[in-house]
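Worked example

This section walks through a single chain of length 155. The input is the sequence exactly as stored; nothing has been trimmed or padded.
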Amino acid sequence: MAEKKILIVDYEKNSIENLKTIFLPFNLQIITASDGQSAYEKFSKEKPDLILLEPMIPKLHGFELVKKIREGSEGEIPIIIVTAVYKGSQHRNEATKSLGVVEYFEKPYDDEALLNAALNIIHDEVPIEEDLPNPEDIIKTLSDLADSLPEKDKI
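Given that input, the structure is written out below as tokens.
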């Protein structure tokens, strides 16, 4: 499977770093941008599988960026809004119904909910890059544990 790409767009470096950290355990290529113009350029060049976007960004407003991306990808690239600025149902409804945004999170957001939404969108095909224990080590540990039990507790 090809490595999935996520484009994270936010004006605030800490927000970008926090989002990158959430996706760190997964085999994902993270691309970042801090303004709308560079975000559109990176979208055009990199063809990400998902975009996480704070709409309040310089050079090209995020909602205008959404429109350009939707046109440029024929609506194929899913976009999740992650915002500290545009809070409330009016903004959520405009983004999801009028602009075609697939999810809408207000900061502070639930990391797990955002991660689950993103992984579901990119089809949960992303393998976790964690060191799993060696099965032989597990069997040996269980065997040693069983050997240490009193005779009356053994099966």
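What to look for: The chain has a mean pLDDT of 87.
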